[in-house]
């Protein structure tokens, strides 16, 4: 496999804030990677470093094997769409699409036109007069139609309604299947995007908390519900990610249960359910929680 992005001990400090704190990872060619984390975790900063829009305070990052900073060759193979994208005052939607067509060597204008219709974007309207969702849709259209070898999408659907988000997932997957490329997508809507992702990078307070195949994370934790005494006995000595207790009934989220463990839990009268990717990440980045409520 070829690594399209390689970061080694990459850091970015803003004064005393360690926005990105010594992260090392590789993104493989042709993968769809979710860059996940809480507000302020460092996702945008990391994407800015990967696309050469910011300078590292330490460590290195390479895309296509090269330093991205002021590297026109690497950057014309890269499309970075971010929520906070600014546009010149006089730009209408169609100007943004025309610029994209000029910039990206593999841009497909016919696909962009179809996506404009799918999202219902008023491309003759000034960008500054578009709603937040319409501006996001323009970014999503450029992100998909550019067919850049490396596509980074930073919260590409902020403001998009549920229908438009599903149009985005469907069209992105469809076009990716026909024209494979490397995609990195940051999002807070983890479960919604989970089917799209084959790899997950979770960043927490600037550090890389999880770097794993989505497949390996599915079923990586389970929730056990039952009588408090039974739950307590079962989880003794296991990795507990979170625990809640209401009136003698306990619920515990536990990592690393195999089929035998689950069967044992069930035979002890506990209800066992898999934890979704989103729940797992919330547990991992929110710290183990313990909540007790009286009856
Ligand atoms: N230019 C800057 N100057 C000072 N601090 C900054 C700057 N840019 C980012 N930060 C800080 O670095 C941290 C990481 O910010 P970043 O925007 O990368 O987070 P994020 O994961 O993209 O968050 P969100 O999900 O809220 O968009 C935050 O604490 C932020 O306040």
From TrEMBL:
Q: Does the keyword Nucleotide-binding apply?
A: yes
Under the GO molecular function aspect, what terms does this record hold? ATP binding; ATP hydrolysis activity
Checking InterPro entries in the record gives: AAA+_ATPase, ABC_transporter-like_ATP-bd, ABC_Transporter_VariousFunc, P-loop_NTPase
Superkingdom of this entry's organism? Bacteria
Provide this UniProt record's keywords sorted from A to Z: ATP-binding, Nucleotide-binding, Transport
Statement: the UniProt record of this protein carries the keyword Cell division: no
This protein is called ABC-2 type transport system ATP-binding protein
Q: Which Gene3D superfamilies match?
A: P-loop containing nucleotide triphosphate hydrolases
Which source organism does the UniProt entry give? Demequina mangrovi
Q: Which SMART domains match?
A: AAA
Q: Organism classification, top ranks?
A: Bacteria, Bacillati, Actinomycetota, Actinomycetes, Micrococcales
Every ABC transporter domain range: 5-230
